[in-house]
């Protein structure tokens, strides 16, 4: 009995060993199965030699930064000199050239000659960039709106519609003779606005005499930006002086590019006007615009350029030579505090 059991164990052992031997012989033929099993853990594949389009390929941040540096260095290398030697040059080969107001006017006048653009009756426009920041980093200046009476006038636009508020018969007759679009007392004008006979948007300026300064308060909600005020020069006793300023003056208003940056473009004069007259108009504009911000807060006008449509040329001016805030001007401490509060 024991012998038969040992024989069976021996046979089973031999069968087991034989099967293992067979498996050892079969294993090499099943090698792809084992490769598939290992491929999930770590795949070792050679890089495929495929042509990749560099424009559509991924670019890392470091490579992108290097590329921008190389491009900027390449652009700098194309600059031939700081200033051109001739009066005609290719812009991309030289930095932006800045000129005086006299030089810029003469250059535009040369473009407007009959032999070229034939635009001597055209207009000069002065473009200015404004710094709207204040002493507080989160607070900025609003829209700059002002009316300027230039020393050398020129035809521009249509006559403004003006509303005159007064209770004195003499001043009401004067306003009518001057050409006011509407004349009346504050009570009469308020009734016409509330009933729909008049609209506040029909008038570009509203002038008021001092005899009814307190009676115009109910009109504040209707007039809003055109509400008469002494600070604006629309409320006073001299109606003739107010009329001359706002009827013959040039009203300009800035536009916001960003919260801290504004753009202002004003008509300077006709191209055919003498250079001396245009320079005087230019100086009056700079002085009037600069009043809206004290030099204690830094330069208000950051850049200036002169254009004369339809010419595409925009000639940059040396802003530091004309606008306040670039030189060491003395500022009173009281003036600095008042300017900060006003801004």
Task: Provide the low-confidence segments as ranges.
Answer: 22-40, 46-57, 333-343
Spatial arrangement of strands, main beta sheet: 1-12-11-2-10-9
- Major beta-sheet overview: 6 strands, mixed
Report the count of strand segments. Answer: 12
Shape: globular
- By helix and strand content, what is the structural category? alpha/beta
Number of helical stretches of at least 4 residues: 10
- Report the sheet-strand fraction: 15-25%
Helical residue percent band: 25-40%
**Average pLDDT over all residues:** 80
Order of helices and strands: HHHEHEEEHEHEHEHEEEHEEH
- Terminal CA distance reads 117 Å
Structure description:
Helix content is 36%, strand content 16%. It has 343 residues and is α/β, with parallel strands linked by helices. The strands form three sheets. The protein has a six-stranded mixed beta sheet. Strand 9 (255-256) and strand 10 form a beta hairpin. Helix 4 (101-111) packs across helix 9. The protein starts with a helix and ends with a helix. The relative contact order is 0.15. The model is unreliable at 22-40, 46-57 and 333-343 (pLDDT under 50).
